[in-house]
UniProtKB/TrEMBL annotation:
This is cysteine--tRNA ligase. SUPFAM superfamilies: Anticodon-binding domain of a subclass of class I aminoacyl-tRNA synthetases, Nucleotidylyl transferase. Keywords: Aminoacyl-tRNA synthetase, ATP-binding, Ligase, Metal-binding, Nucleotide-binding, Protein biosynthesis, Zinc. InterPro entries: Cys-tRNA-ligase, Cys-tRNA/MSH_ligase, Rossmann-like_a/b/a_fold, tRNA-synt_1_cat_dom, tRNAsynth_Ia_anticodon-bd. It catalyses: S-disulfanyl-L-cysteine + tRNA(Cys) + ATP = (S)-disulfanyl-L-cysteinyl-tRNA(Cys) + AMP + diphosphate; tRNA(Cys) + L-cysteine + ATP = L-cysteinyl-tRNA(Cys) + AMP + diphosphate; 2 L-cysteine = S-sulfanyl-L-cysteine + L-alanine; S-sulfanyl-L-cysteine + tRNA(Cys) + ATP = (S)-sulfanyl-L-cysteinyl-tRNA(Cys) + AMP + diphosphate. One of its GO terms (biological process) is cysteinyl-tRNA aminoacylation.
Amino acid sequence: MFKSRFLTQKSCSYHIWTQPTGHNTSINIYNCVTRKIEPLIVKNKNAVTWYTCGPTVYDSSHIGHASCYVKLDIIQRILKNHFGLNLVTCMNITDVDDKIIKRAIELKVDYKEVSKQYEKEFWKDLGDLNIPQPDVVVRVTENMPLIIDFIKKLEEEGYAYKTTDNSVYFDSSRSCHSPGRLQNINEIVLVPSNPHKLAPADFALWKSLKNQNEPFFDSPWGKGRPGWHIECSTLASHIFGSNIDIHAGGLDLRFPHHENEEIQSCAFHDNHQWVNYWLHTGQLHLKHSTKMSKSLKNTISIQDMLKDVEPDVFRLTCVMNQYSSPMEYHAELLDTAKNVLKCYKIFLVACREVKQGFIRPVLNNDVLCELLMRSVKEIHEAFCDNFNTPRVIQILNHIVSKMNCMINSAANYQTKTTDNVYYLVAIENLVLDTLNTFGLDFDEAKKLQSEDSTEFINLLVHFRQEVRNLGLQDRNKDLLKLCDNLRDDLKKAGLSIRDHEKLSSWSR
């Protein structure tokens, strides 16, 4: 009745992992199955499959969710923009769940109103964080027949059993994988939460209706709704089939959610490896707190955070932290990211001023060439090293510091100059391209050239420059004071003017 390799837990080691065949990305990534770094190999670089566990939409998303989804977005951008992979992304929305039902009862509304409201809010949060929607979005309630068919097959092949209360459980004793394949659970005691379960490790595939006032769906086992784990297995399998390149989510999902997904999906597809690479982001917590939880009432909603923190500041904070490491949310960390952003902006403005002739530094192209070549190599090596974005930021900071010293040296102004600046522009492009890869849009200098207001601002700055030059020539303090006042007023309006002897430049 049962396939031999699924007969007992003893017959399989839960740390067995088979390296895929296909395109070697040159990236080395942490593998939670083998507990070590492994080469990231995708089946087809032109169609890389990526599934992300989406939210249960019963409340506002908090900054812990923001940290997870921003970090995953950063990795996806690196894979697409730096490594040239055609990533196909899918995310589920859990729109029926015990928590949603409980919230609907509290609000005295239909559960569908709750899920629609908070899903809409979720997508707005992602948009405000500059996270694009995935290529495919799948909702639980829209795919109930698929979920029921998935459970039926598991039951028919002997991997699931119906209980006396008309629920359906996965029989863990028939699994190829013992609990603990993705995460060490030696210290976790599995206690049966339902007296009908055959073993503590068994988990619900279908939960029978307990309260007639709750939403339900008809099934061969009676009225009820699916368990949490079976939803993702079904929806991901529906889109990507029997094998997925990358399955992502927060570290808190590794056990039991991802663990049980893998167990039941391997049984369904009759294979021993449904997901080739599990990718988990480290959790975010508040300073002096070990956990952020709605039950502890210590969460900060994404919209509340964005009242005080710019999206790019939060994104750079995530870039500066290794994706798999925990991150402590506090003002000092955000201030550091804010200052780094400011340094990048000042550097890019200086590059534009050199290109426009406002600053004429002595540029040692031999030094710049060596800096460029070394930086390109080191950035690529950092990306290959388990997406080591903090190392990339260190490299960018070194570039900016070295370039600023060369550009702003007092001996550079109005003295001997080079005839070309192409290495400076190449380095500027490298910095911009890397920041854009992270989803940080610093290409403001190029954007300004196409804006309708540019010509007007140029005329205003040029007029002020002429008035200022008259004031300098005649040593007229009143004219100079008027020019300074205009500069200060424009700064309040978001326009920065910098004076360079008889020339003036501006930036937003």
